[in-house]
């Protein structure tokens, strides 16, 4: 018995048999499976699947990297745009803040200006404590100076030893005609101690004669003088000596010019003696020259009883009942008015009970208290610069109102009230500040000392410079003989002249031995008297002198004589 055939339509739709020739499609119907011409092997399928997987993996990997790159670029662009925005916003904020800050500062500055103006107006309306503290400090500096032990620089002195050495060498190198002038007769010690009348009319000679005579006496000793011996001048020939003489004379003239330009007073100024400066300072501060008084008197400080109105008394001027001293000035600047005054205007240690009643004069307690608030003195070397500093400290505090000057706080006058002023007046200060300042009674002496001390300090500086020039000139003169010896010996033929000796510095015999016109005529027919009957010299006549001298080392052409006589002048020119 055969089995019934299987119905195809009754087979499950989900069944798919890959080995069958037919398949049931999910949507109905039956299709024949299409078979490939040749199916790949299982191994080839695995390779293909692996390659596809690797490709997909690589693709997705690269895609992911590209996506990350795009994301990074996007974020970068977003960040850049953000910062551009932020920067712009930040700049706008800063600018806004600057504008706000500037406006705020301008408001604060304007408020400060308004406040300052208000305070200034308030200050003008009333005097406050400490208003005259700077003025009091400047006045105290003068009080302390008056209490000091002072030393004053002395007038300058020159290096006399160097100058005397220079004059001595100059006299040693000089020729006989110059030396004759200092002798009365042939004796070695027969000198003109005072300048002869026929020479006294020559400008500058009377002032230099004493130094010349001293140098001539020293030169007459010759080699016995250590400086002359060491200089080597006595070892030079006549021609060498002439060159050295020109050199030393130039140095001596330069030294004398320094001395004449110095103008040191023969008698020191007594105003610059320390004791006299001390007296001048005590007079300016306390009105007394001997010492600081234990109790100040109105007659010393104000030059009177100071019973006038305070506004009249508190004026820096000569005459009675004026602020003639530093103490009087302190009273005007620091002592408060009894009714409407301000306390401690100059110093916080002032006694408030010491009032200046407008109807009466200040008391001794007023005058004694204020100087005690200043410091003590000390040892001080007084200089013009120090005095000038103290003077300028006072000058810098003077204020001008209308045509007058005022030292101290002033609103309208110096009556002492807190709405008037606590000050001293300097009348006419605006039009003549220098002369009015120097005329203040308690500054006048100090100004005089400052000027004289300035002049002395200039002389001290000039003397130091002159000292250096004179010392160098003396040292150069000591070496002149050696320099000339080298130059003359190495550059020209020598004359047949003997070295100089000490006898060259002795007075000449012959005509010069005569002391009167009669002796001169009897001496020789070739002599003549030069001068008056009482003062003069016996000298050879000009014609006789030239004939007796004659030519020196003259050859047939005369050219050698010219060379010998002119060579010292040429060498002297080269030395200078």
Describe the protein.
This protein is mainly alpha-helical. Among the domains are: 133-153 and 270-439, no CATH class; 160-263 and 462-508 and 541-575, no CATH class. The chain is built from 18 helices and nine strands. It has helices at residues 42-125, 133-146, 160-173, 176-180, 205-220, 226-231, 238-262, 274-286, 298-301, 310-313, 326-334, 364-372, 384-395, 433-438, 441-491, 517-523, 542-549, 559-575, and strands at residues 22-24, 30-32, 149-151, 379-381, 398-401, 404-410, 421-426, 527-531, 536-540. The strands form four sheets. It has a three-stranded antiparallel β-sheet. The protein has a two-stranded antiparallel ribbon with strand order 1-2. It has a two-stranded parallel ribbon with strand order 3-4. A hairpin with a 2-residue loop joins strand 5 and strand 6. Helix 2 (133-146) runs antiparallel to helix 11 (326-334), helix 3 packs across helix 5 (205-220) and helix 7 runs parallel beside helix 18 (559-575). Residues 1-41, 493-498 and 545-576 have low confidence and may be disordered.
Characteristics:
576 residues, mainly alpha, 3-stranded antiparallel sheet, two-stranded antiparallel sheet, 7% strand, disordered N terminus, disordered C terminus, membrane, glycoprotein, transmembrane, VSG_C_dom_sf
